[in-house]
């Protein structure tokens, strides 16, 4: 199906964001199976129980699982569970929690302050975190309590298992709890090829917000508490925030389909491979440089203005919000090789003009 953009040209949305993609067949089929008749509401149904069980199997531990509608809710409610209102949350200055959630973390935690640290390629710099913790220890400063990291990061990079271990050790040393925004956690697992537990609880992550939407579901993220104590009364938080789905089975069921036959990892690997192919294809084209290492499903580019304009006028839709001329191309489970090739060939033609 062809969509037109405002100027009447074909809109080529393929690399705008991974949430431009549709619902993958595995998630769709599970929804369909859950749609045959009556079931108890508010999560008291067999699909929700099974989806939680599947997640426990995946992480090889007895974690507490909650399903919410979106990532903003997952992150902000999880962070609120980690902090009191006079605490602070430390995260990267490019973190979604800070830049794209409209202050939800502060809102749902009743004012917990978010403190920002820099770091290359979207990863927090632990020495900057240490400085943020140590620069003040008096009562007038919001007490650091949570460290929030994003895996894979907002800039398409991933923290290695060793880096996560170092972050976990650091957090324990300073009494910080660790939150992981895993909106693209599957892409990180696919990229690193290690067991999910190595990137989470074994490295000291207390709570993971595991993304389903960007990996092929219609809607829904799983909030996975490895530290079960922190999940105490989390169900009430979800309900109060309007995140307790009455037809919960439709948030839960897609996880069953995605986890049972490996689609969650297949989708993520596919998206990562497409991004790699795109980055490789664009390499060496004059006027195009890779802005960050391509380690997951995003490609960040510095484009010369004529190339950027040319691509837009040929209908390619992608976000340009980082640096001057910066462009972000996201791949998804639905990205097609033809689209990657067409984009590369358009970029190459424009570079020759
Ligand atoms: C997309 C995204 C989320 C979730 O966003 P919602 O629109 O609230 O579902 C969270 N973190 C990161 C890094 C994201 O890219």
UniProtKB/TrEMBL annotation:
<dbReference type="InterPro" id="IPR015422">
    <property type="entry name" value="PyrdxlP-dep_Trfase_small"/>
</dbReference>
<dbReference type="InterPro" id="IPR026273">
    <property type="entry name" value="Low_specificity_L-TA_bact"/>
</dbReference>
<comment type="similarity">
    <text>Belongs to the threonine aldolase family.</text>
</comment>
<protein>
    <recommendedName>
        <fullName>L-threonine aldolase</fullName>
        <ecNumber>4.1.2.48</ecNumber>
    </recommendedName>
</protein>
<comment type="function">
    <text>Catalyzes the cleavage of L-allo-threonine and L-threonine to glycine and acetaldehyde.</text>
</comment>
<feature type="domain" description="Aromatic amino acid beta-eliminating lyase/threonine aldolase">
    <location>
        <begin position="14"/>
        <end position="301"/>
    </location>
</feature>
<dbReference type="InterPro" id="IPR001597">
    <property type="entry name" value="ArAA_b-elim_lyase/Thr_aldolase"/>
</dbReference>
<dbReference type="InterPro" id="IPR015421">
    <property type="entry name" value="PyrdxlP-dep_Trfase_major"/>
</dbReference>
<dbReference type="Pfam" id="PF01212">
    <property type="entry name" value="Beta_elim_lyase"/>
</dbReference>
<keyword id="KW-0663">Pyridoxal phosphate</keyword>
<keyword id="KW-0456">Lyase</keyword>
<dbReference type="InterPro" id="IPR015424">
    <property type="entry name" value="PyrdxlP-dep_Trfase"/>
</dbReference>
